[in-house]
Amino acid sequence: MDIVGFLKSQFICHLLICYIFIVSGLIINFIQLFTLVLWPINKQLFRRINCRLAYCISSQMVMLLEWWSGTNCTLYTDPESYNKYGKENAIVILNHNFEIDFLCGWNFCERFGVLGSSKVLAKKELSYMPVIGWMWYFLEIVFCKRKWDEDRKTVMQKLLNLRDYPENFWFLIHCEGTRFTEQKHQISMQVAEAKGLPKLKYHLLPRTKGFAVTVQCLRNVVSAVYDSTLNFRNNENPTLLGVLNGKKYHADLYVRQVIHILILFCHTEMRIPLEEVPEDEQECSNWLHKLYQEKDAFQEEYYRTGTYPAVPVVPPRRPWTLLNWLFWALLLLYPLFKLLINMINSGSSLTLASFAFVIVIASVGVRWMIAVTEINKGSTYGNNDNKQKQK
Fold it and tell me: Could you give the CA distance from residue 354 to residue 183 in angstroms, rounded to a whole number?
């Protein structure tokens, strides 16, 4: 291991990165709080400012993937679709199999300039999470309790509020509702059998009602649906801890239309005009089930041959994520080191003990944040003991 790789794997570096992320995030959350005064005066200005503030937070996560771990990202698409990315509102359907699939989705958004304005359909618990959850509140993210009878009215209202959004945005949605695990897959396929639906090998049954309402509310606002499926080379299982350790992964975005090529890490991408998605809820549900059957067939092909038809395009890696992180690092590390030096010079055992205690608390906090992304510590939504009914 070279010296750079060794440093990337050291916990002290991880701690400093997390310190910059958390402190800068809380500062930005505080600034966002003051932007609330703009809402009744100029709602669109409020939104534009918060898009930029949100970018300052989420781009730090993308920086870890692009610059710290050096992950390669290649898009496989046709030129006509490529020219529209970032220039239109879109619904992006993502599968939910890996711990960093959200980060790969953000990376896709960043390459085409919509990271700050990207939206998600997220579980309500995340809204209470400092930094990212609070940031999402000001971005008008759609939160749900995963109880459709309670969620329907709230979700519809939040989606309708986006109809006059001043920035191009991508609405990222995990239609499966939860991360793939063998236990959840087994339960999901039991539901498929009971409903007479074709079984899926590599996905959970999509929960169609949320998608149908999203399409209904954003019709004539969103231009297309991008269907995306995430895979990794050699059955790699990427983790946020791996990214933090500087481990390099290889990412591709694959479009179904073009010629045969070897895939290192696949993220299938198909641009579907929204007019082709049925408006009727039941027809939309059938359309989504068919889409997931097609996604499953592509996964089968990938696992069998390791190939997909595609032509690679490499979207340029923009410098803004790195520059943003360097700005916050310079701003926040100097007072930290100055404080540390003063504490050491003081010679006070109580002061040093207090500092050590803060380090321990910070370490626990870092581990907790990483655990949020870990599959084995994820939600029980979709498990048998939850007795959740597939929608």
Answer: 44
